[in-house]
């Protein structure tokens, strides 16, 4: 059945009328190898990042049912790729890669082992651990290179050559940051020769041309640099790799600056800003882009543009600190935060902003050092709790689906009461849950017992013994889990006030709702809504990379 769609391009949703029957058949037959493959296909052909992550979670679920460590490793690797290439959540990606690596430690599947090493190396490189990353890429090259020239099946040769070329490109990045230009030059020449004019490796060739252009710039060969860099732009743009495209534009801009072509230089630096505006993502090495633009417009006397790019640099610093925690403290900053705020204050004064705003900015500058630390620690904690809740929700969805594949079993009864009456009450509680009758305002155990035709003591004992909690805890969890699901699944709920959300699930008090939400989910509803909105915004803004 896969032959009907396996040659479709990535993100082509026309594959799904074939994928779903493939998945359904694998479920019926309990063929977990094929079920994992079906969900992996779902990741590959899904057009939205959100659906890719859902299918990645399902891949892990199916792999764990198989008990096959290689399949489980592959599944965690798949989820890590989604986090890294589609969400730019580096820490989350690394966590998944490390789980995959643990499962693949004793694997006999060498291709899987080196896939894991490659992806861990990529994240380490982005986080600034270039020495460690370079050793991983060297191992990958030693494995992939011979395989790419062997007598294996053409598909295997292709996959190994992609692995080899991508590892070589990542090693060049490490060499450049470790100030090893000779090794980088040799690797670039090798890469260009290996990629050749084969359209299958057009993207990789673009990466090598980009690296060649950067080295030419470093040698002050600005004309040659612009030629190599411009030649690399089309394949990199076609691949959707906006991060590398912004690096390309940045070095074209710097090369034109070296050629004293100021107009062309500034136009390319602005292209970098356009990518940053669209994707809200920037590599640390591109911070200088804004320093150059600020200096340029300061020299031109254009205070409006100077103010704009100062604000953009502050925003870039915030993102770099968030996404590159391990790198941000190592980056040389020509403009530290205090200087930027003082400059911004001067510009706003020159543009006749009100005195109250100026005073506020001065106070902000004084308090920033303390507030920044507090905010960073709190935000990190909120992000950690949000991810935990997100994973809990995803797990609940998988468990619900898993339970749908097997007969429903009645909860273990320890009441000592009449078994038939207990089962009748449990059935009524199931209907009560399915119809979401727990959202009734002012619901008490006496009221519910009356609705179910029993007494409160009997109902209380059944809930305690069969649900493992008292009535108030049971009701609270139903209500909070319900509203949490709505916030995850329905964007409209993210617009509601806290009071409205409380009423929606049957809780009368805003404070009581907030306290229960925190007690059950480990995060305040206001923080959860903010993080959920940020995540949805990122999903809408971020384009996909092409992993090997």
Notable traits:
disordered C terminus; 25 helices; mainly alpha; 548 residues; 0% strand
Question: Please, could you describe this protein's structure?
Answer:
This protein has 548 residues and is mostly helical. 76% of the residues lie in helices and 0% in strands. Helix 20 crosses helix 21 (456-467). It starts with 15 loop residues before the first helix and ends in a 7-residue tail after the last helix. Mean pLDDT is 83; it is low at 326-339, 399-413 and 542-548.
Shape: flat
SSE order, one letter for each helix or strand: HHHHHHHHHHHHHHHHHHHHHHHHH
Q: How many β strands by DSSP?
A: 0
- Detail the poorly predicted runs: 326-339, 399-413, 542-548
Count helical runs: 25
Radius of gyration: 28 Å
Intertermini distance:
24 Å
Query: What structural class do the secondary elements suggest?
Result: mainly alpha
Query: Which percent band covers the strand fraction?
Result: under 5%
Average residue pLDDT: 83
| Fraction in helix | over 70%
Largest sheet: none
Overview in brief:
With 548 residues, the protein is mainly α.
Please write out the topology.
Blueprint: H1 16-29, H2 32-45, H3 49-66, H4 69-87, H5 90-104, H6 110-126, H7 130-147, H8 154-177, H9 181-195, H10 202-218, H11 222-239, H12 242-258, H13 262-279, H14 287-300, H15 303-323, H16 325-328, H17 337-350, H18 355-403, H19 419-434, H20 445-451, H21 456-467, H22 471-489, H23 498-504, H24 510-521, H25 525-541
Helix pairs in contact: 1-2, 2-3, 2-4, 3-4, 4-5, 4-6, 5-6, 6-7, 6-8, 7-8, 8-9, 8-10, 9-10, 10-11, 10-12, 11-12, 12-13, 13-14, 14-15, 15-17, 17-18, 20-21, 22-24
